[in-house]
Specification:
The structure holds 2 protein chains of 2 kinds.
Chain A (H helix, E strand, L loop, with lengths): L1 E4 L2 E4 L8 H6 L20 E4 L2 E4 L12 E3 L9 H8 L9 H9 L7 H7 L11 H12 L4 H4 L5 H7 L16 H8 L2 H7 L2
Parallel strand pairs in A: 1-5
Antiparallel strand pairs in A: 1-2, 3-4, 3-5
Helix pairs in contact in A: 2-5
Chain B lengths: L12 H6 L14 E7 L5 E8 L7 E3 L24 E2 L5 E7 L2 H6 L2 E7 L12 E9 L2 H6 L3 E9 L11 E7 L2 E6 L4 H12 L6 E5 L12 H16 L3 E4 L2 H7 L6 E9 L5 E13 L5 H10 L10 E9 L13 H19 L3 H8 L19 H12 L1 H8 L4 E12 L5 H5 L2 E6 L4 E4 L9 H13 L6 E3 L18 H20 L4 H8 L3 E5 L8 E2 L4 E2 L4 E13 L6 E11 L6 H20 L5 E2 L2 E2 L17 E7 L16 H16 L11 H15 L1
Parallel strand pairs in B: 1-12, 10-11, 14-15, 18-19, 24-27
Antiparallel strand pairs in B: 1-5, 2-4, 2-6, 3-5, 7-15, 8-13, 9-10, 9-12, 13-14, 16-23, 17-18, 17-20, 21-22, 23-24, 25-26
The chains are: A alpha+beta, B alpha+beta.
Chain lengths: 197, 706
Amino acid sequence: MRFVLNGREVDVKAHGMKRLLDVLRGECGLTGTKEGCGEGECGACTVLLDGQAVNACLVPFGQVRGHSVTTIEGLRGRHPLQRAFVTEGGTQCGVCTPGMIMAAAALPKGATREDVRVGLAGNICRCTGYEGIYRAVRKAHRARPTAHDSRPTAHGSRLTAQGSRPTAQGPSRRSTRPKSGLAARRQPPAASRKGSR
Amino acid sequence: MPTIGRNVPRCDGMEKATGAARYVDDLAFPGMLHGRTVRSTIACGRIRRVNLLFDPAGFTVVDHRDIPGRNVVALIVDDQPCLAERVVRHIAEPVLLLAHADRERLIAADVDIEYEPSEPVFDPLHSPKVFKSVAIDKGDVEAGFRVADEIVEGEYRVGHQEHVYIETNGVVAVPENGGITVHGSLQCPYYVQKALCVVLGLPPEKVRVVQAETGGGFGGKEEYPSILAAHASLLALKSGRPVKMIYDRAEDMEATTKRHPAVVRTRTGVTRAGRLTAIDVDVLLDGGAYTTLSPVVLSRGVIHATGPYRCDNVRVRGRVVMTNTPPNGAFRGFGAPQTQFAAEVHMERMAERLGMDPVKLREVNAFRAGDTTATGQALGRDTSALKVLREAVKRTDFRRRRRSLRGTNRGLGLALFFHGAGFTGSGEVRLASKASLELTERGARILVSSTDIGQGARTVLAQIVADTLGLPLDAIEVARADTGRVPDSGPTVASRTTMVVGGLLQRCAVEMKRTIGRLTPRQYLRRHRALVVTRQYEAPTAATFDETTYRGDAYGTYAWGCDVAEVEFDPVTYEIRPVRVTAVQDIGKALNPRMAVGQIEGGTLQGIGYALLEEVVVRDGRMANAQLTNYIVPTTMDTPRIDVVIVENGYRHGPFGAKGVGELPFDGAPPAVANAVRHLGLDVRSLPMTPERIMMLSGQQSAGSR
C-alpha cells in the first residue's frame, strides 16, 4: 500500500484492516507512536492524517492509501513544540507526549487557552495536570521559527500546520475520513464521555 | 553555576518529546514470543479441571506445576500464589500462562476452566479475615469526650481508584546466562528481583531486572510487576525464548491493583471555643484477596487519620480485611488520602456544628512546632500547618470570596493536610538503602535503583550531585536502574527518592569531592584508575518508633499543604465542575521548582479525579467498567486552573532542605473539593461525587426538608 509517511512516499505491505497504530509500530518500525487504551479515548496514538489529528488505533490501515501520515518521528526533533514540552514541564513520564505533541501541532497558531483546552481534550495525560502542557503550547506558539525551522529539509511545523495534500489519485478528503477515529475525536468530549457513563 | 532551585529542563525530555525513548513495548528480541495470562472467571472456588481447547503445537503452556521455586509472590506475607493451584480467591486470578510467536493465534487460543464455586465475600464489613489491625492510643479519649461541649460523629466512604498510568503494565523476560533478565515498566527493580529469586529458585546473580523507560506508575508499578515478571520468566525459561507480556487496558484495569476502598468512622469532642478534646477514628480498608502491601497502607492511613491537628486524647483503630476481589495495593498517598478525606470533611462539619469559621477552627487546632502527633512524635521547626493555611487563605481571599458566593451555584472549600515523607517508622533503617557515585572522565555517574517514572528523579538526583561536586549538570550521568549494575537504594515509593536517596548521593558527592581534592576527575582517574563512593542509610537522629504500640517518631519529617477549591454546580446535569484550585504546599525545598510544581499540579488533578469522576464499578467481584470509555479520568475539559504556591520550610536532614513531594498533593484536593460542594449545601460524605450521587443527595436533602 502506497502512502506518504513523514514526507516520504512509501510502500508498505500489511493487511488493510490492521490498525494504523500496529503498522506504524510494526511494519514501519516507528515506535514513537504509543498505545494507551486501544479504544480511541486516551489519544496516546495520535498522528496526523493529511494534517488532521486522528487516533491511529481507530484507523484501519487501508484508509491511509494515497494519503499523508505524519508521526512524532516526522517532526524530526525540530518542531518548537518538542523543545517547549521539555522546558515547560509538558512531559513527565512521556507516554502521552508524542500523541499530545501531534494533537498540539494540529492546532492553529494563535490558539487561545480555551482553543488549546478543547483541541487537546482527546489526549489524556495522567502526570502533569495539563498546566505544563498549556505552558509548552503557549511558548511554542510564541516562538519564532528557528534557523532550523527555515531550512528546506525541516518541514515539521509547516507540514503539520497546513497538512500535506493527498496524492492526486487519492479519493477526496471528505470521503476518506476515518469515520470511527474522527467521529470519536470530533464529538464534544464532555458530552461523548457522559453519554457512556 | 548552581542548579538547585533552578528550572533546569529534564535530562530525558528530548527523547520523550521525539518518541525516541524506549518503553518496554518498544523493545524486541530475536525469537521473541508473546505471552498471555489465562485468568479465573469466578470470585471464589475450587478449580476442578483445566481444558485446553486449542492445538498446542507452537505454544508454550505453563501452570503452577512448572514453578521451580515456591509458588508465591514474595512481599510482606507470602499468601499470594504466582499461579492458582486448586483454589481461586478473586476474579482475574492468574491460572495458566500461554506463549506463542503469533499474537493473533495466542489471543484466539481457547481455554475452559471448570470450577466448583463457593460463596464469595464482597463486603469488607462482613469479612471473616483480617490481614492486619492497628491501634493508636494517646491520652484518655473518654476523659476528652467528657470535657467536650459538642460531640460530632460521621461515617465517610471512598471507593477504589485505578491508576491509569498511560503505559499499561508490561515486561519482556529474556533467558540469559543460565538465568533470566527482565526488562520492564516498573518502579522497584529490587522488589521484582527478590520475588523472582523465590519463585524461580534462582540466586540473585542469575536474576537481573532492568527498568525500561516507564510510562507512569503512581504506585501501580510498585508491587504488581513482580507477578507479571514471574509469569513472563516462567514462559521464557520453559520455552527458552524471550517472552513479552504487555497488558491491554482492559486486562490492566481488571487484574492489577487499585487504591483501597475505605470506611472511616469518626467521633470527635470539641469545646465551644473550637478546641479538640478527643478524636476517635475507626478505619476499615478493603484489602482484596491477598495481603500485598495492605498492612503498610493501613499504617500510613491510621497515622494520618487525625489530620494535621493537635489533640491530647486520640484513639485510632484500623484494620484491613480480605474480600474476594483483586488485591488492592499501593497508590500515591498510600492510605493517607482515605483517612484525611474523612478528617477534613469532618472538620468542616464540626465548624458547621459550632457555627464557627472553618479557617478559625483549623487555626485553633493546627499542629505547631513542639506539638505531638497521635503517635507521640514531637514536631520540629519544619512544621508548617499554620503557615500554609494562612497563605492559602490570603492568596484566595478565602473568607470574602466564600461570602460573595453565597446563594450562587458556586462553592468554595478548603482542606489542610500533611504527609509523612519516607518509609513509616523504622522502615528506612530496615531498608538500609545504598547509593553509589562513580567517578568518570567528565564528572560522575549516579548508581541507584531509584527509577525515573516521570517524576524527574534522574534530573533532580543529578542536580544534587552536580551542585555538591561543583560541576556542571551535564558532567553527571545517571546509570539505568539495572540490578546487575546498581546497588539497592530501596523502592521508588513513599515520597522518599529525593529526600532519602538524594541525601545518600549528597553524602557520596561530599566524600568524592574530598577524595579527589584539587585534581580534576580525569587527573584523578589517571593516577588512581577508579573511584566509587557508596553510602548507606543511617538514621539521622536517635528517634525510634515502636511498631507494636505505634508510639514514637513515625516519619523523619512531614510535608504540609492547604488546598482551596472553587466548584460550580450544574443544576441541569448535576455535575460538579471544578473551577479553580489553589495548592499551597511546603515541600522543604523545591530543588527544581518547575518539576516540583509539575508533581503538585499532577497530584492535585488525580485527587480531583478521585473526588469527582473516577468510579470503579464492581459487580460480583469484577470491575464492570474496565475501559477508559467509562472509567473517567480527567481530560483537559474536566480540569480547573491549578495555581501552585510552594512554601520552603526546610528539613535539616534532607538534601538542601528537601522533604518529600510526590504524594502530598494527592491528599488535599479530594477533601477541598468535597468541602466546596458542602459549601453549596450538599452534605457530601463519600467519593466520588458523580452526577448520579449528587442528584440522589440533593433529592434526599430536599425531600428531608419538606
